[in-house]
Write a structure and sequence with these properties.
Distance between the termini: 54 Å
Number of helices: 3
Radius of gyration: 16 Å
Bound molecules: zinc ion
Shape: elongated
Order of helices and strands: HHH
Number of strands: 0
Helix content: 55-70%
Length: 80
C-alpha cells in the first residue's frame, strides 16, 4: 500500500480526482440533457467505473426528480 496519509478526507467520498470533479460538475447538465453527446458518453463511462460518482449521481438524480415533480404541481399555480 502506498497511500499517503497527508490527504485530507473531509467526506465519505474521494473527490481528489479532477475527473470526478468535472463529472460531478457536469451532472446537472447531464440530467437536463444539456451536454454534447461526447461529453455525455464520457460521463457515462466514468460513472460506470466510479462508485463515488455513481452514488453522487443517484443523489442528484433523485433531487432532480423531486424538484421536477414539485415544479409540475407548482406550474398549475401559475407561479414562477
Ligand atoms: Zn468519479
Amino acid at each position: 500500500m502506498t497511500i499517503t496519509s497527508d490527504v485530507r478526507i473531509t467526506d465519505v467520498c474521494e473527490v481528489d480526482a479532477p475527473e470526478c470533479r468535472s463529472t460531478r460538475a457536469a451532472m446537472h447538465d447531464y440530467l437536463n440533457r444539456r451536454l454534447p453527446p461526447d461529453r455525455e458518453n464520457h460521463l457515462e463511462v466514468h460513472l460506470d467505473g466510479c462508485a463515488a460518482c455513481i452514488r453522487a449521481f443517484i443523489d442528484i438524480r433523485e433531487v432532480s426528480w423531486k424538484r421536477r415533480a414539485a415544479a409540475g404541481t407548482a406550474a398549475q399555480d401559475g407561479s414562477s
